[in-house]
Amino acid sequence: MMDTEVNQMEEYEKPEKSEKGDKGEYLVDYDDFSIVTGLMSAAQDADHDNREAAREANLFVDKRDGQWEQQWWNANDGKPRFTFDMVSPIISQITAEIEQSDFDVKVSPMSGGASKETAMTMDGLIRNIEAMSRAKDIYINAGRDAATCGFDCWMVSSRYADSTSFEQDLMIDPIPNAVDRVWFDPASYLQSKADSQYVFLLHPMSIAEYIDRWPEGSKVSVSSDREGDSYYDKAEVIVVGQIFYVEREKIELVLMSNGATYEVDDDFRAVVDELEAMEVKELRRRIAYKDKVCSRFFDATDWMEDDEDTVFDRIPIVPVFGNFKVVENKVLYTGAVEKLIDPQRVLNYSLSREIEEGALAPRAKYWMTTTQAAGYGDTIATLNTNSDPVQFYNADPEAPGAPQQNGGANVNPGLRNISEAMRSLINQTAGMFAASMGDNPGLQSGVAIERLQSKGDNGTVKYYRALEAAIATTGDILVRALPKVYDAQRTVRLLYEDGSAEMQVINEPIIDQQTGQIITLNDFSKGVYSVSCRAGPSFRNRQQETIETIIEISKVDPSIIGMAGDILLNSIPTSSATQIGERKRLQMLSQGMIPESQMTDEEKEQMQAKAQQQGQQQDPNMLIAQAEQMKAQAEQMQAQVNMQKLQLESAKIQLEMQKLQAGMQIDQANVQIASFGKETDRMNTQIKAQEAGAKIQREQVATQGLQLDNQMKYAQAMNPMPPSWMQR
To answer: How many whole angstroms separate alpha carbon 582 and alpha carbon 503?
Structure first.
């Protein structure tokens, strides 16, 4: 998808000025009628050659005899002068690509208090301005003219919403026949002409309208730079000029604590007290220069009205240039037709000559002598109509053999070669090939045809880009003018890309509950915004791409269907699918699957009403937070359950291992017990043997003691007196 961006920070070099008081005046005096008409003549002279080539290209495509040079057209009067138009289908092919695309203006916040919400409001409002202006048709027609002659224009204007309203709206208006009507500052070199200090717009109007508007006027038309008229049967008009010019004025700016920047003028001084009451304080001041665009009407002799201020700060006329470039300080532009004029005219001439030679050549006839034809005149006269199986003739010795057919058309082969060469040259010059023109030569795969089409697109994308750049410029002009036109509290319609719409209040003052200060919602005067134009397939084509993309992604991640079910169903262009999509979105909303940033105001109100019915005084943000929290808690609980399952499985495995280890320990213990029992029996046997031995020893000791007593008794009996040692 292509993207062209313009932002409000662009600065262009302005002519120097001399200052008088608070207002600076350019060196160009736009009040001097002779100076202004001189500027218009200079602008026309500087671009005269480009405009003549553009006019020729337009006449070549649209005028009935435009594909013939006038001298050859006149010289071949009474002869075949056919037109075999191979150029118009090429222009139609380029235009068809534009018709099948959407050019979406995108506003983005940059600085100075700009907000995403206000940018989205600007998006919807600009899309609504385009819808009310039927800008799609204006863009398509301008793209066709850019491809044809390399130049076209439209303009942004402001006017009252209706005859009984005090509210103004911005509109996009076409400028038919811009080649003759719009003349830019020749010193401007940007493709957007944003650096133009002035531009002239010529208005052809009926004599009655002129007199009704300016009864004292001279009724003399200004010059349109045409050297002659190609059409004569047309309305009588008076051409009035209008100049748009930029004036630069010195101003004083003040930055307030609420983020707003004000110009120090009577309006600001009138609300200073109110701002102070709201505790909005001044932060700083600086001197700046403000551009404003003024407008004034004139005819060939004098001014028709006083100058008038507009709501714009840059020229509100937007050009579309084909093949734009600057060479030797001269702006050049061409369409696709200019280089096709010569081969197409040669093709028309050569094919007309082929047809002429074929038509004027004598028919093929049978040649015979009177002797051969004698008696068979009736059948010979009807040779081309009768169905007789044979034709008789008389033999003639002076002309042996049957009569022979001779003559017939004999077209110059050189003309045929020229015609074929011109056909090929036209396509090659335009960069358009058979597949690009919808002609399938056969025996080719779909991929090959797509590549041939892509190759053809390379030759036409420059017109696509030129239109994209012009629409981005238009969006920038609109964004700059929004704060001046939509400067009061009012309800506007916002239009969205899918065709849905909602009403929105802008410049609505509300009290900030946190600070207690009054703030203004959707205040276009705050901040700086950039503008881009995103060009791509039409919304219906993008719907089909969305369906295919979601389905392809869901093959990898099936959960995508559950998350994007409403988007998938709403992308199917049927009423039944839309109804199912609404039910799916309601289900997803109740489950908390729709983020707050993607909710509509109506959905937020529905959620708030549901909460109130349940006795819960909660705002949609709280409900969303709760839904998100419940979802997170559910996911956390599920994770905990899964963890517990894993822990149980792990514990079960550990228990089995412990059982196995315990069994092994029991078996080892049993083996040890059995071994210990055997050792105990052996020890018991040894103990018993030892006890028996000890018993025998005790018996022996007792016997020895008894014997010792007996010996003592015997000894005493033998010697009754104890020895002397015993007496002592």
So the answer is: 21
Separation CA 294–CA 314 (nearest Å): 10
Confidence check: pLDDT of 385 > 70 = yes
Region of residue 325 (phi > 0: left; psi between -120 and 50: alpha; otherwise: beta): beta
pLDDT greater than 80 at residue 674:
no
- How wide is the angle at C-alpha 103 spanned by C-alphas 529 and 98, nearest 5°? 155
Determine the pLDDT at residue 196.
94
Helix (H) or strand (E) holding 698: helix 620-718
For 537, the 3-state DSSP assignment is strand
- Least Cα distance to 331 among 156, 183, 520 occurs for 183
This model's pTM is above 0.85 = no
Once rounded to an integer, what is the mean pLDDT over residues 626-647?
Answer: 70
Q: Helix, strand, or coil here: 100? A: coil
Mean pLDDT on 693-697: 76
How far apart, in whole angstroms, are the C-alpha atoms of residue 519 and residue 388?
103
| Crossing angle of helices 116-133 and 135-149, rounded to 10° | 70
Listed residue (148, 58, 55, 140) closest to 103, CA to CA: 140
User: Which SS3 state, helix, strand or coil, does residue 366 take?
Assistant: strand
As beta bridge partners, residue 157 has 171
The answer, yes or no, to whether residue 177 has pLDDT greater than 90, is yes
**Spatial CB neighbours of 350, under 8 Å, sequence gap ≥ 6:** 415, 418, 419, 422
For 718, phi and psi rounded to 5 degrees?
A: -80, -30
- Tens digit of pLDDT for each residue in 395-422? 888 888 888 887 766 667 777 787 787 8
DSSP structural state of residue 716: H
